Automatic annotation (TrEMBL):
Residues 29-134 form the Yippee domain. GO terms for molecular function: metal ion binding. The keyword Zinc applies. Signal peptide: none annotated. Keywords: Metal-binding, Zinc. It holds the Pfam family Yippee-Mis18. This is Protein yippee-like. It comes from the Eukaryota. Belongs to the yippee family.
Length: 137
């Protein structure tokens, strides 16, 4: 029997593979979503432990320890809302992985206390939702 090169139209299924919006360079240590491996942040964007020590706090998410980043990639941002956190009242917006839609942490939109202003515009990602990739020894 002769084989057709194209299946009938009713059998054609279009699939779209998901790709990340941004890939971080392979030469840098990165953090990725533990659920889908989408890149989230470059290690250079992690607020240093010295900064955390200076402000006398470590970061805590709803599911345990968290890291504070200057910038992140491949995340969406929900609406801002006021929340009372361990360090006082803040306006924060939940952030989620653009690829798998898992809530990862939040973005600090506004800090009401002057000692917390350094957090504005920065991102919290909980360790429970990320994995280290590229160049970690």
């Amino acid at each position: 029997p002769e084989l057709s090169e194209e299946p009938p139209a009713e059998m054609v299924k279009m699939t779209k593979s998901k790709t990340f919006q941004a890939y971080l360079p392979n030469c840098h240590r990165t953090y990725s979503c533990i659920h889908c491996r989408a890149h989230l942040a470059n290690h250079d964007e992690l607020i240093s432990k010295a900064t955390q020590f200076f402000f006398m706090q470590s970061f805590q998410g709803s599911q345990g320890r968290a890291y504070l980043f200057n910038s992140v990639v491949n995340v969406g941002c929900g609406p801002a809302e006021e929340r009372v956190l361990l360090t006082g009242l803040h306006a924060v917006a939940d952030i989620y992985c653009e690829n798998c839609k898992t809530t990862l942490g939040w973005k600090y939109e506004h800090a009401f206390e002057s000692s917390q202003k350094y957090k504005e515009g920065k991102f919290i990602i909980e360790l429970a939702h990320m994995i280290k990739d590229n160049g970690w020894e």
